[in-house]
Amino acid sequence: MDKLTVALLLSSKKILVLLRRFRTMKKSFFHFSNYVGNPNWLELGQEVEYTLSPNGNTSASGNCLPAENVRTLPKGSIPQPAILDGTHNGIVARPLRCINPDQQEYAGLIEVLDETKQSVLTQHEFGITSLVNKRDLLQKGDLVTFRIDEIGRAADINAVRQKKRATVDSIKGQFGFLNYEIEDGKKLFFHMSEVQGNAVALHPGDTVEFSVVTNQRNGKSSACNVLKINDRPDRLISRLKLNADDTVPRLIITRAPRGPQSKGFLPQARIARIPGILIE
């Protein structure tokens, strides 16, 4: 049995999966029928084990053998290089090939520039497993923070993107739409897996913070790292929760009370009154 990581989900119908280890450029693919388990749970960057099909045909490119008996492995099953201390700032000089299929290189590339932003100090390749968010579509020119492992590759990569705010327009199944227009007046969409925290608690009308990314494979823009913003202070929310008991009598306020004047409350306010009887 060999071990690789899931590098790319091919085809919108999720029929094929490409396996790849960027360090060795070794590739294999498999049909979902050769996966042991529920293929809907497959995620980018997952570690798997498999056997190569002895009589299988290669892919159209001629350098990709089919795999079978594919099983997922616990995280950490494949030894990874140790990550060194220190965080660095860089810029994506080359995305992953799954983001830009026109490029020849499989691995992405991050460059560290000098203070003038004119000279390249160091370069570091990265793969799917290098990303903190495996669904993040890092593109050329994106600013990132990252760490470096013992073989000089980038690790723990986080994108540094401009944050935007909008309200949720609607949610339909696994996709949501924001009141944020993009090309041709279309509303920006997001996948529910991009929602930070409890996605069930997100409803139309909620204010969210997000970043906009464009998929270079299909040219479509979407929202990522969607975070719900509380419009009410936490103290008020907790008080509302405490007063949400429908089994007790409720007091309805018909008008706001008058506050004290500069000389104190009016004399009429000091008159003894019978409870339940209003004095005009």
From TrEMBL:
UniProt keyword annotations, A-Z: Cytoplasm, Phosphoprotein, Repeat, RNA-binding
Compartments, record wording: Cytoplasm, P-body; Cytoplasm, Stress granule
Membrane-spanning intervals of the chain: none
InterPro entries cross-referenced by the UniProt entry: CSD, CSP_DNA-bd, NA-bd_OB-fold
Pfam families: CSD (PF00313)
Xref: Gene3D superfamilies: Nucleic acid-binding proteins
Occurrences of domain CSD (ranges): 163-228
Top-level taxon of origin: Eukaryota
MF terms (GO), sorted A to Z: RNA binding
PROSITE patterns: CSD_2 (PS51857)
GO cellular component: cytoplasmic stress granule; P-body
Main function: RNA-binding protein involved in translationally coupled mRNA turnover. Implicated with other RNA-binding proteins in the cytoplasmic deadenylation/translational and decay interplay of the FOS mRNA mediated by the major coding-region determinant of instability (mCRD) domain. Required for efficient formation of stress granules.
Quaternary structure annotation from Swiss-Prot or TrEMBL: Component of a multi subunit autoregulatory ribonucleoprotein complex (ARC), at least composed of IGF2BP1, PABPC1 and CSDE1. Interacts with STRAP. Part of a complex associated with the FOS mCRD domain and consisting of PABPC1, PAIP1, HNRPD and SYNCRIP. The interaction with PABPC1 is direct and RNA-independent. Interacts with EIF4ENIF1/4E-T.
Family: Belongs to the UNR family.
Protein name per its UniProtKB record: Cold shock domain-containing protein E1
Organism: Bactrocera latifrons (Malaysian fruit fly)
Gene responsible for this protein: CSDE1
